Each structure stands twice: as C-alpha cells, then as structure tokens.
Amino acid sequence: MRDAKQANTRVVVRLGVTAVLMFGFGFALVPLYEVFCDITGLNGKNFGRGDVAALEVDRSRTVKVQFVSTNPETMPWEFKPVERSMRIFPGETHQTAYFAANPTSQWMVAQAVPSVTPAEAAQYLTKINCFCFDRQPLDAGASQEMPMVFVVSPELPAHISTITVSYALYDITASEPVALQDKTKTGSQLL
Amino acid sequence: MATVDIDLPHVKDHDHDPHHHGPAKGLGRWLFTTNHKDIGSMYLIFSLCMFLIGGLMALVIRAELFQPGLQLVEPEFFNQMTTMHGLIMVFGAVMPAFVGLANWMIPMMIGAPDMALPRMNNWSFWILPFAFLILLSSLLMEGGAPNFGWTFYAPLSTTYGPPSTTFFIFGVHIMGVSSIMGAINIIATILNLRAPGMTLMKMPLFVWTWLITAFLLIAVMPVLAGVVTMMLMDIHFGTSFFNAAGGGDPVLFQHVFWFFGHPEVYIMILPAFGIVSEIIPTFARKRLFGYPSMVYAVASIALLSFIVWAHHMFTVGMPLVGEVFFMFATMLIAVPTGVKVFNWVATMFRGSMTFETPMLFALAFVVLFTIGGLSGLMLAIAPVDFQYHDTYFVVAHFHYVLVPGAVFGIMAGVYYWLPKWTGHVLNESLGKFHFWMSFVGVNITFFPMHFVGLAGMPRRIPDYALQFADFNSIASVGAFIFGLSQLIFVYNIIHNARVGEKATAQVWDGAHGLEWTVPSPAPYHTFSTPPKVD
Fold first, then answer.
1. ipTM score here?
2. How far is A167 from chain B (nearest CA, A)?
3. The whole model's pTM is what?
C-alpha cells in the first residue's frame, strides 16, 4: 500500500511538473517564434536598422522600391507615402517620407509597423533612419512628413527586381502614460 | 485485446468486507464521491447535457441557414452560436464523455479497485460544471457571448472581443485544470494499478489509447492555458503578444493555438479508436487483428500530431518550405491511420459477425471516419487548401471526423458498456432505430457541405449566396433528423436502463476482458482483490 502511494506521488509530481513546464513552453514559443523568423528571414520583419558602412554601388541594375501604407479601421489618421515608388541602384542611400495627418480633435500617438515583401528581400533592406523607430505623436489637426532613409544591399539576389515596403499605422494613444500625454499637450514634444 | 486469459469464474462475488459499504445516500453521495463508477456516471451525464445544449445551438445555426437571407437570428447572435456550439461540443461534450468512459472502464479493464487518485478525481469532475456555467452565462451578459469562433483567433478575441471574453478565458482555464487532473489520474491508474500479470502489451486497446491521449492532454492543455493567459494579458494588462502596434504578431496566436489545437483533435479521436477496437472483435468473434501494430499506430499518430499544426494556417503567408514540410508531415499521418482501418477490416474478415447496436455504430465509425480522413488528406494538400480554406468543405471534414467519428465512437461505447453499468439490456429495436436515424441524418447534414464548400461557401456566415440554397436546406433537414433522433437515445437510456431485460455478466456472447467477469450491474466496488491475469 505504501509503495503504491509512493508510486502515485511520483507519477503526480512528474506529470504535474511536466504540465507546468508545458505552460512555460507556451510562453517560450513567443521568443522562439521571433528567433526562428530571425534565423530563417521569414515574416518580412527582420531588416537591419542603424548605420551601414558606405556600400559599393551596383550600377549594373536598378531595383524598384514601392511604398504602401495601411490604416487599420480604428486608425483615423491620413497616412500615405510621399513617393509611391522609386527606382534605385543597390548600394545607394536614399531618403523618402510618409505623410501623416491627425484629423481628429485629440492629441494622438501612432506607431508604424513595417513589413517587406518578398520576405526574402527583407534582410537586404537596411533602414538608416525611420519614423517607425519612434512613436509619432501629433496634435489635433496637425500633420507632418516623416522621413525614412534606407539602403538596399548590392548583395540583393538578382531575381528580385521589386521590393515592396509596407507600413501599418496603429493608434497607441491609449497605452501612453498619462503624465507624458499632459506634457506633450503643453507643447514640448519630447518624443 | 491481445492475449488475456483470465482465471476467474465468470461471475465473481464482490467483496463482502464490512467496511466496503455501498454508496452513501442522497446528494452527498454525488458531491463527495470518490468512487470511479459514480464519477464516471457524472461525467457521462454532464457530457450528455452539454451534447444536447450544443446540439440545440447547432439547430439554431442550421435553422438560420435553411434559407438564404436573415430569418431567425441576428448575425451577431449567429456568431455567438457557432462559437459556443464549437466550444461546448469540444470541451463539454466529447472530452468529458471520454473521461467518463475512462473512469468507468479503465479500472475494470485492468483489474484495479478504483482510480489511483480518487479525491483528485472528484475534484476534476466538480470544477467542470462551474467552467461551463461561466461560459454559458456569458450568453446573458452585456455584449453577448464570445463570438469569434471556437478557435478565438487574435485580434478578433483580443482587440475586438466582447467584454465576456474574460469569462471565457477563465472558463477555459478551469476546463484545462480539470483535463490535466483527469489525465494525471488516468496515467497514474494505468501505470500503477494494473492487476498482476496485466503487462502493458496485454492491456485492452481502449486503455492504451487513453494512456496516450492522457499524455497528449498533459502536453497541450497547458499550452492552451498559456495562450488564453496571453490573451488575458493583452486585454487587461497592456502587453502586446498578439498586437502588432506594440511589436507583437497576430500570426503568433495561430501558431501557439494550433500547437495545442492539432494534438487536441487527436485527443478527441484516439479514445474512439480504442472503443471501436474493443467492439469490433466482440461482434466479429475474432481477436483484434494486429494488436501491436494498433498500439504503435496510435503512438505514432500522437507523436506526429505535434509537427503538423501549421496545416491549419497554410494561407497566412507561410514560406513555401514551411508549406511543403507541413503538407508532407500531415500526409504521413494517413499511414498509421490506414494501418488502423486495415486492422479493423481484417478483424471483421471471415468473422462471425452480428450487427447489434454497438457494432452498427462501430461499423459506421469505420466507414464515415475514413471519409472524414480522406477529405482531411485533400485539405492537407497545401496548394488546393487555398481554395478550401475557411469554406464549408472544412466544416464538412471536421464534422465527419467528429460526429460519426468521436460521437459515434462514444455512442458505440455507451451501447456496448451500458448493460454492464445498469444491469439492464438496452432495447435493441430502439437502439437500431436510433442508429439508422443518426446515420442517415449525419450524412444528409454533412455530405452536402462538401459540395457547397468546394463551390466556395465560406464558413461562419449567417447568410449566403443564392446558389448554395438547395444544399443548405437539405443539410438543415438532415440536422433536424440527426438532432431529434438523439431523443430516442436519451429515452432508450433513461427508460430501458431501468426496466430493460436483465443483463448477464458477459452481456455480449463474444465479449472478452476483465470488465465482463464482474456481475451486471457492476457492484459498487470491483476488484478489491486484484484478479490474476495470465
């Protein structure tokens, strides 16, 4: 009887620990998913950011870079690329911009989330500066052009002739700390 | 079953030890019971209630879809019906029914006096009604019940979900805890309480399939708990697991959900495989063909279930390599499944078959589950899945594997073992009437869905294009035939289980196994001294 009790306790402890570990594994899937996408370059998300050493410009071909914008239905801002597309030489640094206007009577903060198609091209597109690096606050009725500086690596595979850069603009006003909202409302835009 | 020879007289006296008394009286018996038979009965009755409630919701859905246009319910309520129907059938009807059968039968099949952890057993049942009260109460809440489909994809269930989503999350947590406790109990029982001589490879297949199912439950129910916890945090605590604006990813939800979801569909079918593997040998009066291969097939289906989840999401924009991998991994599952179907057919081959009600349900299971499996293979083909995805073809597929699959499996099991539980034989004519009405009803309901699905009718919509009208009205007629025929089942159980003809210990003349050596009805305590199995 004692042995049976011990055997049961052993099974319960082992399986209980397994269940707890699997609960943790569910959460571990979140970073694992990011890492997996990073390694394989899936999802069109893992482009480089920051400075790049001057690259040799490949003038033997041009690449068409298209810019698109998406507003989720809950986002009232006007949001569009200043240039819809441009033809560039790989290795050349270029600047473009997106236009954003806040038509509401509220101070709002937005966050742009980029994505690159085809996903394979994502790792060859480096953004030296981008409005998507920061939160973008806009006063009621205000508008602004938000710059973006990028370079496409000359190592871009030859079969890719068009890269589409897409930005989705999300309203994140609700998640801004209240104190910060008051401060920016008085005019000193810290962000 | 492989080679279980039992050196017991057919009718074994139950224990007359004075402190082994019968059940307590009144409500307390059910609230505080630790008896596996009582708890098994409660699980089965609970699941029958849930089956009827979920079925009622299905009838609301089919009544609305009888004609194109909006006749009976608002689209918002329609969405709540599809969601609640799915959740209740999966977590409230099918899973508890299998746990109930496991509670009743596993100790009697392996010669154990009770489950290994009787108090936890009581606990794991009694939290279940509360989970479903919480879930069902959301129908009466402001903003209505969850309306995002049983798969509760983010951001539908996070950003756009109704306020009752939080109650839904809490309900899922409780169900998960209940399932995990039930699974731990079943594993502990099977590993520790087998009668002397009952080696693993002598265990009845129902016990084997449940052992493997229990491991699946312990592996994936915590992941489900994790995904709903992430939802909870996204909704209330400002995290952004699934919110792109905060750096999260809605596609991540689908990956985590289906990592749970695919093993879950095998959780709902493996015990049915076990039941059918008990019934077919009994009524074919032959040993089960290829017992070891059956065990290995179930184990390999369970293992494969962990590496196929993304076939539910071929259309999210996965890279080609991913689609090819998940496509072939999915098709691989057809191999062990084919082994099982082959073995069932081979068991019947040249057997002295009779067609009592349990056998009819088991045979319908083999045939109709195979149809569902084949449409599953079609869906596994990634390129064509782009056409089938989220259409009624998918609805037809999973209802073929769940209704004439899991549900017929459960009904076969109930018809097969009920005489052992109640001591009364069920009315065969009523049973056969129920079977034929169900069989015809199921096919009229779900077969036309293949056609409208291939023609492009999307799932989860209250209204549809005119060209789908004929097949939809046929399906609705079938649904009412199937739904109403379940009342025959309920009547047959309640009435005949009490006044029917007395059952013998063996009940069916081809039945073998330890559970048929105890008297019918099975005494409150069985196998207090373990039987000897050679």
1. 0.86
2. 11
3. 0.88
